[in-house]
Design a protein that fits this description.
The complex is a heterodimer.
Chain A: E1 3-6, E2 10-12, E3 18-25, E4 34-39, E5 46-51, E6 58-60, E7 68-73, E8 78-83, E9 92-98, E10 111-115
Parallel strand pairs in A: 2-10
Antiparallel strand pairs in A: 1-3, 3-8, 4-5, 4-9, 5-6, 7-8, 9-10
Chain B: E1 9-12, E2 18-23, E3 36-40, E4 47-50, E5 64-69, E6 72-77, E7 86-94, E8 99-102, E9 106-110
Parallel strand pairs in B: 1-9
Antiparallel strand pairs in B: 2-6, 3-4, 3-7, 5-6, 7-8, 7-9
The chains are: A mainly beta, B mainly beta.
């Protein structure tokens, strides 16, 4: 079946960097974009942007430029979210989800990133 | 401040019908972009519930339905069950922001 499986939880100190992976299976990876979303504790969903898995071109939402980088390894059907100069406010669950401009389906199970000194 | 506006909470008794509204503007829902709905059960990832305004993915019960009119959309849930307690999010696309846009989410409580 079509699914996205994300890497496990991370505990990082402020100023560090982290890389979250999202491995796709059950479909041809390069035919759908991968989106990244953030959900802070007790808050709603924020769309961070997407990466075109055919061209590798990323698109970042306004609030997620600079410290955030989307990348791919198509040989293993995996998308990555890398972000640096971590702040405590980056503590959140990060999701990947398959989709173009329309609906997002399926979603990965989420990766909790905790930033704490 | 979310681009799409949802009520923070709704509630209903088992068996009843509830609706959740999603209000946008001329740069998103009113521009003709489709509305999609997600259900997020406690401690889990969001799951697609309704796509393209009024379509149910395979496996979603017909108790869930969606509609869209003008700059707004609605999700209706009939025959409420305890297992429907969750957060519900609407989503569309905003042409001013060139971004996927979400509502702030609505918490459904089954009394």
């Amino acid at each position: 079946q079509v699914q996205l499986v994300q890497s496990g939880s991370e505990l990082k100190k402020p100023g560090a960097s982290v890389k979250v992976s999202c491995k796709a299976s059950g479909y041809t990876f390069t035919t759908y974009s991968v989106n990244w979303l953030r959900q802070a504790p007790g808050q709603g969903l924020e769309w961070m942007g997407w990466i075109n898995t055919n061209t590798g071109d990323p698109t970042y939402a306004q609030d997620f430029t600079g410290r955030f980088v989307f990348s791919l390894d198509t040989s293993v059907s995996t998308a990555y979210l890398h972000f640096s100069s971590l702040k405590t406010e980056d503590t959140a669950v990060y999701y990947c989800a398959r989709g173009e401009i329309n609906w997002l389906d399926p979603w990965g199970q989420g990766t909790l990133v905790t930033v704490s000194s | 401040q979310s681009v799409l506006t949802q009520p923070p909470s709704v509630s209903g008794a088992p068996g009843q019908r509830v609706t959740i509204s999603c209000t946008g503007s001329s740069s998103n829902i009113g521009a003709g972009y489709d509305v999609h709905w997600y259900q997020q059960l406690p401690g889990t990832a969001p799951k697609l519930l309704i796509y393209s305004n009024n379509n149910r993915p395979s496996g979603v019960p017909d108790r869930f339905s969606g509609s869209k009119s003008g700059t707004s959309a609605s999700l209706a849930i009939t025959g409420l069950q305890a297992g429907d307690e969750a957060d519900y999010y609407c989503q569309s696309y905003d042409s001013n922001l060139n971004a996927v846009a979400f509502g702030g989410g609505t918490k459904l409580t089954v009394l």
